[in-house]
Write a structure and sequence with these properties.
about 250 residues; mainly alpha; 9 helices
Length: about 250
């Protein structure tokens, strides 16, 4: 039986404090508006559209912070299944590998276990969204000229979390009954980043190419990753994006 979101994403997990929007600010009102639209059952393609008269950078900031909070929560829930032994490389199946580079501690692209990569990623994003010079919260303080470029970098790296979780841990997601919640989060994320052209189509290929294949191929990929031995062995994994119709 599927559990509610509160049961799936609950205690005994290590999460960072959520970045919050201060009540009374324009961004807080935008956040409330976005959440109300999301819960109303409206078409997500319409939910992500910029409300008339609103500033696009404010709208992007609200969503980037919200996606960070939700994706951080998703990964925190999955982290017990993602160990250095199970996932020694941050990857998305057999074809895609992600290396970490931040220009400081890691000046060159470096292979890392998925768990360490994710922790560094969340630390990096948290430092950006808490930086008043990049995500200003004071009234009248403008966004920097490179604000959207920074957001593009953030959402492109957050996409890698979806890639890794879907390809390597979807069986665990299903066992917790959380697939519907994660699918909805991904669908919302996908429509938003494509609405505002925040990520190149080439970076979306790990999921586009995977879900365009037959289910037997998906099962083979997961078996190969977990060394199940028999690629024809049945797994109750389903197709996580089968009813999202994102790419048609």
């Amino acid at each position: 039986m599927a559990m509610c979101l509160g049961q799936v994403f609950s205690k005994d997990k290590t999460f960072r404090p959520k970045k919050r929007f201060e009540p009374g600010t324009q961004r807080f009102e935008l956040y409330k508006k976005a959440q109300a639209s999301l819960k109303s059952g409206l078409d997500l393609r319409k939910v992500v559209q910029l409300p008339e008269g609103e500033n696009i950078n404010d709208w992007i900031a609200v969503h980037v912070v919200d996606f960070f909070n939700r994706i951080n929560l998703i990964y925190g829930t999955m982290s017990e299944f993602c160990t250095e032994k199970s996932c020694p490389i941050m990857s998305g199946g057999l074809r895609y590998e992600y290396r970490w580079q931040d220009g400081e501690d890691y000046k060159r692209p470096t292979k890392l276990p998925a768990l360490k990569y994710m922790n560094l990623l969340m630390d990096w994003i948290e430092s950006l969204i808490n930086n008043e010079d990049i995500f200003p919260t004071r009234v009248g303080v403008p966004f920097p000229k490179n604000f959207q470029q920074v957001c593009k970098k953030i959402v492109s790296r957050l996409f890698r979390v979806f890639v890794h979780v879907y390809i390597h841990h979807f069986d665990s997601i299903c066992s917790m009954g959380a697939e519907a919640h994660i699918n909805t989060c991904y669908k919302h994320y996908y429509y938003f980043i494509t609405e505002f052209h925040l990520i190149d189509n080439s970076e979306l290929q790990p999921l586009v190419s995977l879900w365009s294949r037959p289910l037997s191929y998906i099962q083979y990929q997961i078996c190969a990753r977990y060394k199940c031995g028999d690629s024809k062995k049945e797994h109750n994994i389903g197709n996580p994006l089968s009813n999202l119709n994102l790419y048609s």
